[in-house]
Amino acid sequence: MSREKEITIYDIARELDLSAATVSRGLKDHPAINKHTKKKISDLASKLGYRTNNFASNLRKQRTNTIGVIVHELRSQFITSVLAGIEKITNEANYDIIITHSSETFAKEAANTLNLFHKRVDGVIASLAFDTENLDHFEPFERKGIPVIFFDRVFEEREGTKVVINNMKAGYDATKHLIEQGCKRIAHITANLKRNVYSERLKGYQLALAEGGLKFSEKQVVVDDLSEEASIRSAQKIMAMKPMPDGIFITNDFCAAICIQTLKEAGIRIPEDIAIVGFNNDVISKIIEPKLTTINYPGIEIGEIVARNLINHLQGNSNIKLTNTIIIKSELIVRESSLKKKK
Q: How many CB atoms lie within 10 A of CB 129?
């Protein structure tokens, strides 16, 4: 089946016996074209299925008004809220976004990066996959002067603009709260410690233990991915610990919810036997029974800030090369899952 020919302004001009310049101006609602002519042009354009070729027009201007977004997954409520914040700001500024996700693999992330480069995006917003070990795949953007802003999962030691929370403080706050509830054997369930978010939360956990006079043991740290299967495995590892922990700081709310469910099914009471703190303040934290104490990680605000910084740079209102790390405030939200000491 042959493809239908793309309608151009020249086709419309020929049918209406007008110049191509008049049709072009009419379609752009130019004040020099009278209303009657504009309506004729617009009606025929609709009838013939004419599509504005913004891509070609933007290429002539050396820009596409498109921003590439690279995320590590799409199933996370945190990521979808970040995307909502990005979309709100880009939409207001008349930018389109192309969203790609790496499924937590460096190989796919590198392929997505190259794809966005060839799509000629004006800028990139990225959060790194579990196993990304360097930023070499972003070099083509650097060479062309195309700005890249990282959020959430970043390389802390690399230059460039990053939007994050203070993960170390958040890990510290979560663990200190468990200590204040009287927990003495606090485990930590986390993910790949190559990523800044998890390594920094671990540091916060260790610091709170040290300050609380509690001994840190690597045997109390469970590292896995954050899938449903991994979360069940993690809960089983907690139950196999001798003695069993009386508190757990879990780096993700979905994982925490699955752990709570698994522990309850084994007859363990939450929070009486084990107090639990999660991370992200996802919707599931308010649905699980008992409701989950967690760290609020404001995704929409992060999306808005990262997009606003990128667009301000693209529009010449600021220079992201002068900005290093933007730290967004996070906070502990206390609910029933951690309250060994009832209010």
A: 25
Q: From its phi and psi, is residue 152 left (phi > 0), alpha (psi between -120 and 50) or beta?
A: left
Give the domain range for residue 24. 9-52
Here the CATH number for the domain that contains residue 175 is 3.40.50.2300
Decide: 253 and 81 in contact? Cβ < 8 Å.
no
Say if 149 falls within a structural domain. Answer: yes
Cα 282 to Cα 217: distance, rounded to the nearest angstrom: 29
**Structural contact between residues 130 and 198, judged by C-beta atoms closer than 8 angstroms:** no
Q: Which phi-psi region, left, alpha or beta, contains residue 49 (left: φ > 0; alpha: ψ -120 to 50)?
A: left
**3-class secondary-structure state, position 184:** coil
* Dist CA 83 CA 319 (whole Å): 23
Backbone Cα Rg of the chain: 26
Q: Could you identify the residue written with the tokens 């993910």?
A: 191
CB atoms within 10 A of CB 173: 18
Cα–Cα separations (whole angstroms), residue 333 to 77, 140, 299: 17, 42, 15
In a domain, 148, yes or no: yes
Which H or E run includes 70?
A: strand 66-71
- Assess whether pLDDT exceeds 80 at residue 53: no
Q: What is the mean pLDDT of the chain?
A: 90
- Asked, for residue 320, whether it belongs to a domain, the answer is yes
Total number of domains in the chain: 3
Alpha-carbon distance 332 to 326, whole Å? 20
Give the contacts of 113 (CB within 8 A, at least 6 positions apart): 70, 124, 126, 137, 138, 140, 141
Residue 212 forms beta bridges with which residues? Answer: none
Strand, helix or coil for residue 216: coil
How far, in Å, CA of 112 to CA of 101, rounded?
A: 8
CA 33 to chain centre: 45
pLDDT digits (tens, 9 = 90+) for 11-50: 999 999 999 889 988 888 888 889 999 999 989 988 888 8
